[in-house]
Amino acid sequence: MEIDLALVWALIIAAAVFIYVVLDGFDLGIGILFPTARSATERDLMMNSIAPVWDGNETWLVLGGGGLYAVFPLAYSVLMPALYAPIIAMLLGLVFRGVVFEFRFKARPERRWIWDIAFFLGSLTAAFAQGVALGAVVQGIAVEGRSYAGGWLDWLSPFSLMTGVALVVGYALLGACWLIWKCEGPTQAHFREKARIFAVLMIGVIGIVSLWTPFLHPQFAERWFTMPQILYTAPVPLMVAALAVLLFRSLSGTRDGLPFLAGLGLFLVSYIGLGISLFPHIVPPHITIWQAAAPQSSLLFLLVGALVLVPMILAYSGYAYWVFRGKVRIGEGYH
């Protein structure tokens, strides 16, 4: 039986993007939550909770973007000009954050507020830009032949702005849940309250985006609202409801890691729902993964490299999280 290499690569890139979203998502969320910290000590704790892992988290963005360029060059050549503005905004936000991690702890205390603002703005910009780019892709990209046929501002729409807000809310929830896991005492209690607020907002934006998406394209509505497809898609909203209940219950419980895992579950189920809507298109509604794929020989060659590199990245990431497991306390840091 011949292996469908284009489908295999689509799954690899989808997995890389999801891993990036949830890993870099919580440290972007911590930046978004930075203004809610009540003291300089609390801000230091927030930074220390992600200092050992933030740069490794962004490895998955490189894998996803580089994989798209190498494996689906047609999709890359269409998506980039369509999304120049949000992608540049995202990269600038990530650059700001990277500079903050290097220089904030070296700054004099009276000047540290400058880096705090840069960390917040960089995180907010990157998160919002990612959400806008996602919304722009879902709503559809204008294609003529093999080229982008839209304008400079086609990415800007009410739906893409909504998905931008939704991702900011989701990242803030992940960040708050991460701090529940990594902190203790008053700091943990403070972010437990923030997590409750963002959990309510998260359920709200999931509902709005989920109800909006099927009406963007007839094929989306057909997939979600007609028989027999609805029998396969119905478990998605049911799982969202179950995970929402688990999240709210865990925020009142004593298992510090459970809220974070429930938040990850919400992201995963939402991501699966997105995949159900889009598949098999990589540039909806015109280009499928098979139309965008590189030649079979290239896909096979790159797959051999991926089978070596991806396990190495997974092993490194897992080792980093294992080494720096446990609570972060005042006076402990990695700078």
What would a concise description of this structure say?
Pfam families: Cyt_bd_oxida_II. The chain is built from 15 helices and 4 strands. The chain is mainly alpha-helical and 335 residues long.
Structure description:
- Helices cover 74% and strands 3% of the residues.
- It has 335 residues and is an all-alpha fold.
- It has a single domain (7-323), classed as Formate dehydrogenase/DMSO reductase fold (Up-down Bundle).
- The strands form two sheets. A two-stranded antiparallel ribbon has the order 1-2. Strands 3-4 form a two-stranded antiparallel ribbon.
- A hairpin with a 3-residue loop joins β3 and β4 (287-288).
- The protein is globular and about 55 Å long.
- The N and C termini lie far apart (53 Å).
- GO terms for molecular function: electron transfer activity; oxidoreductase activity, acting on diphenols and related substances as donors, oxygen as acceptor.
- It holds the Pfam family Cyt_bd_oxida_II.
- It is a multi-pass membrane protein.
Could you give the count of β-strands? 4
CATH class: Mainly Alpha
Give the terminus-to-terminus CA distance.
53 Å
What's the shape? globular
Task: Determine the structural class based on helices, strands and strand pairing.
Answer: mainly alpha
Integer count of domains: 1
Family: Belongs to the cytochrome ubiquinol oxidase subunit 2 family.
Organism: Stappia taiwanensis
Protein name: Cytochrome d ubiquinol oxidase subunit II
InterPro entries: Cyt-d_oxidase_su2
